[in-house]
Fold this sequence. Notes:
By secondary structure, the protein is an alpha/beta fold. It is built from 25 helices and 17 strands.
Amino acid sequence: MTTTNILSTINSPADVKAVPDNLLPQLAQEVRDELIRVMSDDNPTSVGGHLGPNLGVVELTIALHRVFTTPKDKFVFDVSHQGYVHKIFTGRRERFETIRQYEGLNGFLLRTESEHDCYGAGHAGTAVSAALGMAVARDLRGSDEHVVAVAGDAAFTCGVTYEALNNAAEQTKKFIVILNDNEWSIDRNVGAIARYFNKIATSETYSHLHDRAARLVEKLLGKRIKNFAKRVETGMKGLIANSVLFEDLGFRYYGPVDGHDIPTLMHTLEFLKTQEEPVLLHILTTKGKGYEPALQSPMKFHGLGKFEPETGKTKPTPTPTYSELLGTTLSKFATTNNKLVAITGAMPSGTGLISFAKEHPTRYFDVGIAEEHAALFAAGLACEGFTPFLAIYSTFMQRAYDMIIHDIALQNLPVRMCMDRGGLSGDDGPTHHGLFDIGYLRHIPNLIHMQPKDEDEFCDMLWTMANHTEGPTAIRYPRGSGTGVQPKAQPKLLEIGKAEVVKHGSTQPVRVAILGLGGMCQMAEQAAAQLEAQGISTAVINPRWIKPLDTALIEFFGRSVDVICTIEDHVLHNGFGCAVIEHLSTQRITTPVVRIGWPDQFVEHGAPDILRKKHGLTVENTVKTILAALPAAKGAKSVA
């Protein structure tokens, strides 16, 4: 007997509604099979993705689309990396194989991609606030759509989530928040909120809760009497006493409910649609459900590259990543410095600090997805003479911007900020590209900012940061592996503000000086080689320091060459090249500066090589740009 493939008939939310109830488990399994296929080696073009989170929300997404109707009704997914199933159900099934690929579907929800994506996101804690804004807009407009915020338990470690919860009851009456509790964000959740949710889920009454909740909601839905809403509230509150936190914030709390039980989810959501007050539904799900490798390694399968579907194995990286090197290097430093501590915001694996945590558990602090608190926490440690290293992705450090200025730099505290993913983040796209940190840090007084050209220099910089006690420091470094350079056994202290001349011009006069920041130094050397082959003597400089600049070196080359070129893995606006131009201008040095970097736009997702070629971050474009500037540059020298 041949079983009809249901998923192949799903091209819109209406098709999801049309599936017979008894076939919904089959649909769920087919969705899981498709998720695994598309993100594994079974899909030749796969670049991987957020498999674990999406496996965990299959039944929830089915129930949402059965009970509500998008795009009229609004689903606001926190972070939205768990929106793959929603994409499949909303007309994007046939393109799903392109997820996270250049010109393919984005790995997060995107307003410009579909009318069913009412809100784009890429970081935790945004859903409740944004959804509340939509609900209030609905009330002001006088329309009747439903607004549902879907947030994982990790989002409830974000302060902004509680700011929204604090305001909801005062600002709207019809509002649904779904707390998707799977005990994980990327790594296992930590802190008092995680323990609070665990207390609810493991209370003595929970073993009976699912059946009682299902019977109660189904019974009351079968009869339309006004006072049944009050009976549901009273009955379900009696099942769990620990819901007081949400009740005190003005939400009616329901749950916890089995997040993989489609009938119960549907019945409960149908009931919640009728409520005229903010409600919070607490569901329990399993991250990676239905795929044993993901269940065994939820951290790994949160987000990964392509993998072997039968075993879940991925190909190892050829050299240690900068993230891994951070963890092992700081762990080594901490053996001789008992005041060195490491802090992250729910990213021990992503930032590489998992190795530090194993070696120095009492000096490792995961504060949850709470970057503002992390920065302030580090400031407090620095006040007391400790050596805090704060490891947060460049794009997420933006949330701590106020604290960096007002609490760290203003007080000149020696907090060491390690900004992973400084530069392009490829397949994750614009929400994760670390292309703005030079611009948001370089104007802050007291702060030192640096970027290494390779792994050995990275360790030297970390050692320099560890020994610098006179103010804040920041280091940016790229995602993934470096050039493969083996770090020295003992790192050395670098002279702050002193650049490195990697290559002097082959002949005199030197006509071009290329400053390749960080990993772009290798590209600068390649461009210089092409220029030398054309008889143009070219120097290559590894700047090392974004702030303070090596002003003496920049002035020397500014007065002696025809063209200066800067290359950076950062937007051109307010970037490293701008800093060079500003300094030359203050010295009245008029030598042209051509800049290679990212344009003034949010760069799309895709493989780095493809994006660099499209936007001109290539050796070929660098050489072309320099050659175009050379004729006009002849004779243009300092008037100082």
